[in-house]
Write a structure and sequence with these properties.
The complex is a heterodimer of chains A (about 90) and B (about 300).
Chain A (H helix, E strand, L loop, with lengths): L1 E6 L3 H10 L1 E4 L2 E4 L3 H14 L4 E7 L6 E6 L4 E6 L2 E6 L4
Antiparallel strand pairs in A: 1-3, 1-4, 2-3, 4-5, 6-7
Helix pairs in contact in A: 1-2
Chain B lengths: L13 E6 L2 E6 L2 E5 L5 E3 L5 E6 L3 E3 L1 H9 L3 E5 L5 E5 L7 H12 L1 H16 L9 H22 L19 H24 L15 H11 L3 H10 L5 H15 L2 H14 L31
Parallel strand pairs in B: 1-5, 2-6, 5-7
Antiparallel strand pairs in B: 2-3, 3-4, 7-8
Helix pairs in contact in B: 2-3, 3-4, 3-6, 5-6, 5-7, 5-8, 5-9, 7-8
The chains are: A alpha+beta (about 90), B alpha/beta (about 300).
């Protein structure tokens, strides 16, 4: 299972993601791929993201059962708590 | 209106989460850690078996109440996971299980059956028939000592025995410090498991007289397949942050050995060695006036 959520992404990237994945809500893409394909898709996001931001989450063999990476600026940032990834929400300004 | 909050089963959770520095509170119904800069971090408390609170954390009343409602055990720990104080009551809500455990512990014959099963479990095979508990304890002591020595040899560590002062952290060599830190992780998870299943942490069989006697009994069953190899392998690397690395590695070991999935069935299996069944309510006892709700958590969880 692979989910990518984009915010403020250029139409070019959104179209590109829709080539492989289903856009189930505005900017929310879902699919199910191998590691190789996941990395290829994320490479596309990296190149095409512009001023936007994105997060990708997939099933992983860790205690949480999933892992995720982010790109671009967002008030939500991943934090590591002794190996468990949580998300901090930054205050305004 | 949202449905009522209920605990989920221990096996579906993350084993441990360590938190330091910040105020734990409830915002919009979620459990949050707020630091002095106003940064909020959501803690998925309902999917954590045991929350270890380090020096520098403060917990609000609402946060403690929410933790209890979703069945997460809160443990206040000192430096490197040495337990200071523990509270939170996610389980222990099953009188039939408490009475069953107490009956097994009080009857000398039944207690011996349970103790014997515990040693069988740890030896991983049948033990000589007719051996009494003293002999079993002696055999186990010798075996444990040998395993420590073997493991130290495997990881190239100088080993002078298990030595530590529980009151003074930093005493003991690096291997002993890693072992203390790793066993603290195991005890936290085990206590969460014991409580979630509805048993009493204090009623032990091999161990006795301590608030966590039963926790030590159960943790010992898993110690050598989980935290001991972890502690030695970390100690061998001479890391800058041994405790942090131990925690991470413990979590991996818990996942790989399916500890959270196995812990409650193992408790049941060990106690079943007594050969008695859960007590039935006395015929003249009053059934609860409010019918019991069905939960999706473990049998001892409050709903």
């Amino acid at each position: 299972m692979l989910v990518i959520v984009t915010e403020n992404a250029p139409p070019g990237l959104r179209g590109r993601l829709a080539v492989w994945m289903l856009e189930i809500r505005a900017g929310v893409y879902v699919g199910d791929f191998s590691v190789k394909v996941r990395e290829m898709v994320w490479e596309n996001v990296k190149k095409g993201l512009g001023e936007g931001n994105a997060v990708m989450v997939w099933r992983a063999q860790n205690e949480a059962g999933y892992d995720f990476v982010t790109l671009g600026d967002n008030r939500r940032v991943p934090v590591d708590m002794d190996g468990i990834k949580l998300v901090s929400f930054l205050p305004n300004g | 209106m949202l449905p009522k909050l209920k605990p989920i089963a221990i096996k579906e959770r993350i084993s441990l989460l360590f938190l330091e520095k910040g105020e734990l509170d409830v915002l919009d119904g979620a459990f949050v850690l707020v630091d002095k800069n106003g940064v909020r971090t959501h803690i998925p408390i309902g999917s954590v078996a045991c929350l270890m609170l380090e020096p520098g954390s403060r917990v609000s009343h609402a946060a403690a109440a929410l933790a209890a409602r979703v069945g997460c055990l809160l443990i206040w720990v000192g430096e490197a996971g040495v337990r200071l104080y523990s509270a939170g009551q996610p389980g222990g809500a099953r009188s039939d299980r408490l009475l069953y455990q107490a009956k097994l512990a009080l009857d000398e014959g039944l207690r011996l059956k349970v103790v014997r099963r515990m040693y069988e479990f740890r030896f991983d095979d049948d033990i000589p028939p007719g051996s009494n508990v003293e002999q079993l304890r002696g055999m186990e002591g010798a075996r444990v000592k040998k395993m420590y020595e073997l493991m130290a040899k495997r990881y190239g560590i100088e080993w002078k025995g298990r030595r530590y002062d529980s009151r003074e952290w930093g005493s003991g060599d690096i291997a002993n410090r890693c072992l203390s830190s790793a066993t603290a992780c195991l005890y936290g998870v085990t206590e969460a498991g014991v409580l979630a299943a509805g048993y009493a942490p204090a009623i032990g069989f091999v161990h006795t007289g301590k608030p966590l006697s039963f926790v030590y009994d159960i943790a010992d069953l898993f110690k050598f397949e989980t935290v001991v190899p972890v502690a030695f392998s970390i100690a061998a690397q001479h890391p800058k942050d041994p405790e942090g690395m131990v925690r991470r590695a413990c979590r991996d070991a818990f996942r790989e050995t399916k500890l959270l999935k196995n812990i409650i069935p193992t408790i049941e299996e060990i106690l079943a060695a007594g050969g008695i069944s859960l007590p039935k309510a006395a015929p003249d006892a009053l059934q609860p006036a409010i019918p019991e709700e069905r939960g999706i958590g473990d049998a001892g969880h409050r709903n």
